[in-house]
Amino acid sequence: MNKKLLKVVGTCFVLLFSISFGITLVYADSNNLQQSEIVGVRENDISSDVKSVVEEFIPKNLSFMFSSDDYSLIDTNSKKYLEFLKLRNDYRKKTLNSTGIKEQDLEYVNYSDFQYKNIKKLDENMLELSVSAKKTTKYKDDDIVGTSVFNYIIRLHKVDDLWKIWSASSDDEITNPFDSKKKIDIIQIAGIPDEDFRLNKVDDAIHKMKLFYNFEMENYFNQNNNYENGKLLNQDVKYIRNVELKATNGYVNRDAMYNYMMKYAHNYNDDYKIFTYDCANFGSQILFEGGARTGGGAIMDGQYRLWDTKNGPKNSKGYGHAWTVAKYLRGYIIRNTSNVGPRGHVISYGSKLKKGDFCFLDLYKNGGISHTTIVSTPGPNFRICSHTHDRRNERINDIHPAGNNGDYRSYVTLTALY
Predict the structure, then answer these.
(1) What is the pTM for the complete model shown?
(2) Residue 179 carries which DSSP code?
């Protein structure tokens, strides 16, 4: 499929997606926008500082194509809007990449002819602007130049005599479902800054936006796959579906973990690299299958140990130490307090372990963790699965009898997978 056809197909995907998979996300929280008296402002009265922020922000962070990951123009206290914008832009980047369009394919994306209208002064430190902007796009090796106009609502907040973006919306809902007011009214959600805005259900709103992101991404790639008549997803798209769409509510899918360990205890999943000492790698795969997302990590032995398969050290085949080394995997699980990756804590009795929990072992009885096993069947003499010495549903006391060293076994139960 040539590049031009890919672009046409990609546009069709996005348009059909927008029509077919609309869900409504209604928010009635915010601050009910109890504003001071709204005062009309003429365009000529808008300072050059305000215009420069707006005209830098739209192409940088609110593009209909690839947006920048530099969010320095955003007010750092506008946490709901910042999370929204990151999810919005990540959605667009991944859907564009899946159609074969890369950022380097764009010769230019110019924004010009900014028109300001319906300007409101909400208070001394808050402006709301309705703005239209013309954008022009050209792809390398193409003679066609595309031009379109989109409308934006932008709220700015003055912070230490500098204007920052508090929230903004676009009417570009054809290519980006986040820009549909019917689905997410981000201006309403973000509200306005006041003495109580930090308490205004920030976490709840962000959680709903993440669920919306997962829903839209999954539907997009499901439709993409159906459009190709069952053609297998390429590796990038497969990674997105397997990693980014994992549940973010902390649920531990222990049945999925059990099925995976029973399937791969005596053989190896071709999606992963194999290590001479493969026990932690196998345990990490099981955590991933249960719902944990990659990319997290923790400081251990003076270094940040990453739980990931793409951005780790070259001498570990790109896998992070927290993914492949038993003591760092254990350390990460019990130290992790973020909403990425596995969480758990140490317990005193192996009989209390659940299916999918971990029993880490000090095989050399020197006080250090050197082996990873995963509980397949709970009980006083629970059964485990493991790699390196491949074990499938074998009793712990038959193969690793408890020793006198207090650190010989470390029982870790999972509390959440994010």
Answers:
(1) 0.49
(2) G
Three-state DSSP class for residue 298: strand
pLDDT at 54 over 90: yes
Q: What is the pLDDT of residue 46?
A: 74
DSSP string spanning 98-125? HTT--GGGEEEEEEEEEEEEEEEEEETT
Q: Residue 401 above 70 pLDDT?
A: yes
Instruction: Give the angle 368-371-376 at the CA atoms, nearest 5°.
Output: 135
CA distance 272 to 218: 23
**Cβ contact 213:240 at 8 Å:** no
Helix (H, G, I), strand (E, B) or coil at 346: strand
Least Cα distance to 62 among 154, 193, 147, 145 occurs for: 154
Helix (H, G, I), strand (E, B) or coil at 393: strand
pLDDT bracket for residue 11 (50, 70, 90): very low
Sheet holding 39-40, edge to edge: 39-40, 106-123, 126-139, 145-159, 162-170
Which of 242, 261, 218 minimizes the C-alpha distance to 391?
261
Q: How many CB atoms lie within 10 A of CB 222?
A: 14
Summary mean pLDDT of the chain: 80
Query: What 8-state DSSP symbol labels residue 241?
Result: I
> What are the tokens at 119?
């300007």
Secondary structure E strands in 192-347: 296-300, 303-307, 342-347
Q: Which of 212, 203, 214 is nearest to 183 (CA)?
A: 212
